[in-house]
């Protein structure tokens, strides 16, 4: 009888060890940008992978980074990444797409993936290409096409193009200003943008991310001061010192709320401190 009991016991051990091995696979490691910079100094044979769009990459990226947009990573083998055991350091703009890409790379069998968030937290050197599509604003007087305006809106909202559907992109005017009136939906929220035809400035925006998606979308925790910098980065030319911000805890999940007045625009926002994600954003042109 004892022998009969021992066999199921060892079978259980084998099954458990198999499950453990399975869960150990398809994973990646997360570090912050400072740790990533130290790793780049320490190691030699590694790849820095920028998973933003080509336009974002052209505007500014970490030196020696290669660009493979998150949207292009699927189930096919990636010729640019032949060595699946090589150290690959992955980043995007704010940390959302880099996590998505890291998960997909791990599922493809890459064993040494390190995700370090977004370039907005990078304090080291960056470089840009001579030709690029701007994230938020073009040179004064340059007319922005509807395609460029959509890129500007998606980048400002930190929404991968693959996530957007039911896109409406029409030419219109607001207070005498020719604009591209852009609307799109995602699984986690609806987005409205008004992008000036002349120069590509965002003169209106309104979106709200469903709070139940915040943990799914992910990100990195931010302090009050870091949240101010997030807003200043989102509004080119503005200063974090001019961002008014405070903490609210009325519904059990803390949040940072605030506003910014800059160049005849009023911006109102809510930020999730746990993920650093701007989940409520409104921008209005005043006067």
Record the SSE blueprint.
Elements: H1 2-24, E1 29-30, H2 33-42, E2 46-50, H3 54-59, E3 66-67, E4 87-92, H4 96-107, E5 113-118, H5 146-157, E6 165-174, E7 177-186, E8 189-196, E9 202-209, H6 214-217, H7 224-234, E10 244-248, E11 255-262, E12 265-272, E13 277-285
Parallel strand pairs: 1-5, 2-3, 2-4, 4-5
Antiparallel strand pairs: 6-7, 7-8, 8-9, 9-13, 10-11, 11-12, 12-13
Rg from Cα:
22 Å
Q: How many domains, as an integer?
A: 3
The SS-based structural class is alpha/beta
Q: How would you sum up the global shape?
A: globular
How helical, in percent, are the residues? 25-40%
**Helix-strand pattern:** HEHEHEEHEHEEEEHHEEEE
Oligomer: single chain
What is the correct CATH architecture of the largest domain? 3-Layer(aba) Sandwich
Distance between the termini: 88 Å
Structure description:
The protein folds into 3 domains: 27-121, Oxidized Rhodanese, domain 1 (3-Layer(aba) Sandwich), CATH 3.40.250.10; 133-208, Nuclear Transport Factor 2, Chain: A, CATH 3.10.450; 210-287, Roll (Nuclear Transport Factor 2, Chain: A). An 8-stranded antiparallel β-sheet has the order 6-7-8-9-13-12-11-10, covered by helices on one side. The chain has a 5-stranded parallel β-sheet with strand order 1-5-4-2-3, with helices on both faces. It is an alpha/beta fold. Strand 12 and strand 13 form a beta hairpin. The protein contains 7 helices and 13 strands. 27% of the residues lie in helices and 30% in strands. Mean pLDDT is 84; it is low at 1-7, 9-24 and 130-140. It is globular. It starts with a helix and ends with a strand. The longest helix is centred in the N-terminal third of the chain and has 23 residues, at 2-24. Keywords: Signal. Residues 1-23 form the signal peptide. Residues 42-131 form the Rhodanese domain. This is PepSY domain-containing protein. It comes from Candidatus Lachnoclostridium pullistercoris.
């Amino acid at each position: 009888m004892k022998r009969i009991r021992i066999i199921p016991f060892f079978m259980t051990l084998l099954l458990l060890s198999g499950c453990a091995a399975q869960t150990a696979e398809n994973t990646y490691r997360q570090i912050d940008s400072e740790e990533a910079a130290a790793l780049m100094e320490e190691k030699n044979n590694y790849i820095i992978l920028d998973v933003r769009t080509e336009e974002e990459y052209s505007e500014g990226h970490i030196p020696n980074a290669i660009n493979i947009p998150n949207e292009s990573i699927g189930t096919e083998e990636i010729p640019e990444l032949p060595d699946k055991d090589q150290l690959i350091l992955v980043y995007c703009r704010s940390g959302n797409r880099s996590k998505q890409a890291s998960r997909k790379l791990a599922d493809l069998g890459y064993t040494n993936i390190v995700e370090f968030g977004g370039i907005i937290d990078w304090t080291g050197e960056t470089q840009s290409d001579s030709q690029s599509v701007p994230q938020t604003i073009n040179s004064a007087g340059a007319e922005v096409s509807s395609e460029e305006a959509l890129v500007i809106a998606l980048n400002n909202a930190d929404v991968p193009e693959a996530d957007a559907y039911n896109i409406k992109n029409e030419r219109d005017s607001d207070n005498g200003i020719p604009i591209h009136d852009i609307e799109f939906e995602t699984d986690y929220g609806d987005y409205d943008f008004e992008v000036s035809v002349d120069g590509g400035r965002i003169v209106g925006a309104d979106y709200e991310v469903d709070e139940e998606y915040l943990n799914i979308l992910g990100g990195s925790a931010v302090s009050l001061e870091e949240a101010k910098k997030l807003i200043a980065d989102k509004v080119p030319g503005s200063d974090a010192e001019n961002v008014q911000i405070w903490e609210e805890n009325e519904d059990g999940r803390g949040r940072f709320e605030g506003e910014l007045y800059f160049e005849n625009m009023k911006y109102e926002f809510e930020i999730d401190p746990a993920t650093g994600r701007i989940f409520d954003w409104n921008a209005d042109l005043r006067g």
